[in-house]
Amino acid sequence: MIEFKDVTFVHQNGVRALDSVSLEVGKGETVAVVGENGAGKTTLVKHVTGLLKPKSGKVLVDGVDTRETSTAQLSRKVGVAFQNPDHQLFSESVEKEMAFALRNFGFPPELVEKRVSWGLELFGLEEYRESSPLVLSGGEKKRLTLACILAWDPEVIILDEPTVGQDAIQKEKLAGTIRLLTSTGKTVVVVSHDIEFLWPIQPRVIVMKGGRILGDGMAAELMLRKDVLDSARVAQPQLVTFFEGLSRRPKATFADPLEVRRWAGGNR
């Protein structure tokens, strides 16, 4: 679905943001990209959307070279919610913001209305239908950008720091949305510093540092690799730290607090 072939990218200031990156993401995978600021995470996903083009190497999306197609063409297949929603929101009302891409992609009017209502209800934004996106809080703006993307049903969804500004309830709803997308065969890529949010989802994890990939594997295995995480300045999830501190423990790490409660109840 997504393939990086020995990709290098250098910013105009000379900083090498990606350094010989090779990577494949299959259809239906949920992938988390982690690492400290400046590791190359956002640069990586901007190559998937075609906003950035490799200095060398190739990026393929569903077999199409991103250098040979436009960002507009890629956007029908790849939806991205960037870290700063103010870079994406421009319409005079929340409803028009939701409807813009749908109309641009040629959805019929009756389906546009259905998709708009569905997205606003799903993300708790119905009361702001006639309001300007500018009056929304930071967290609400991020939910709006995600609602706009899901409304046109792209095959690939990229979320850049989606939990910033979200409370615990909204984070849980977002995690549920990601699981739902995965269950329907969507490819989801999440760029995040929020390890505690990512851990219960149990995605494939790509650890980056200095434009390179230091580690790539399922969360249950890679999050035990403290050498890799420390090198990239990524903290272990608290449940992993707790698990490793137990003198008597189950065979696998705890995926969420409910597993801890069940385990503790059975070992009284």
In short:
The chain is of the alpha/beta class and 268 residues long.
Written account of the structure:
The chain is an alpha/beta fold and 268 residues long. The strands form 2 sheets. Strands 6-7-8-3-9-10 form a 6-stranded mixed beta sheet, with helices on both faces. The longest helix is centred in the middle third of the chain and has 16 residues.
Order of helices and strands: EEEHEEHEHHHEHEHEEHHHH
> What distance separates the N and C termini?
47 Å
User: Considering DSSP H and I runs of 4 or more, what fraction of the residues is helical?
Assistant: 25-40%
CATH class of the largest domain: Alpha Beta
State the low-pLDDT regions, or none: none
CATH architecture descriptor of the largest domain: 3-Layer(aba) Sandwich
- What is the CA-based Rg, rounded? 20 Å
Overall spatial form: globular
What's the topology here?
Elements (H helix, E strand, L loop, with lengths): L1 E9 L5 E10 L4 E5 L6 H9 L6 E6 L2 E2 L5 H5 L2 E4 L12 H11 L4 H14 L15 H14 L4 E5 L7 H16 L3 E5 L3 H4 L5 E6 L2 E7 H4 L3 H6 L6 H7 L12 H9 L3
Protein traits:
alpha/beta, 4-stranded antiparallel β-sheet, Rossmann fold, single chain, 268 residues
